[in-house]
Amino acid sequence: MAIEQAPAGELVTVATSEGVGVVTMKSPALSRPAKEQLLAALGRLSRDEAVRAVVLTGSGRVFCAGQDLGEHAASLRADPATAFDTLADHYNPIVVALTVMPKPVVAAINGTCAGAGISLALACDIRVCSAAAKFATAFTGIGLTFDSGLSATLTRAVGTARASELILLAEPFTAQQALDWGLVGRLAEPGQVLDDATGLASRLAAGPTLAYAEAKKAIRAAALPALADVLAAESAAQARLGLTADHRNAVEAFLAKQGPVFRGC
Fold it and tell me: pTM of the entire structure?
């Protein structure tokens, strides 16, 4: 598999071979540079006619742990009113790029998948998951609600009752639970996840990609509310919560490895 872009220090790499593009998030959490590189990589693969299927994965023991909270804390300290501009600038465009990609996208969930990491996984069409992976919605643990389309995609995947438990209680859950609840479709041995996902992508790359693109549109139209409306509503809610003391204090407590205290303000 040929590396298209992997200079030293890159946070996202792209490798292409025989119609399959593999996008690897090298950093556990999503900083601004990582989000910008991920969005750019997805855009290139979407336009590349030689790429007929895409795999999204992480590295090491982490698929994606969500937002870099150190960076987010700095944004809150600078100006809480603009701290969530990253949703419109980065997260929402990344989710749209995965969702409307005119070719199949397979998530290879190699390890920990939390916060916006779950949003990215659910924006993909098929999910192959390490049997050792751990999941957590995490948002309410720092005084936030859903974003990156998760309010719609999680509810579609696991149903209203389960989605309510997962977001309100924010309890970690296992790969087997994710499979049982319908959040992922396939489990693999930890060292086999990327191979299994790439094998599926290769099978899809050899198939009728125009038909796949139309199928993706039909599924999206039938199963989800308008994505733009979902993303706008989530972004507005996160912006409101970003101004609360609960959220700011919870982020600082997380970074200090302390438990948050929520006061409803």
Answer: 0.91
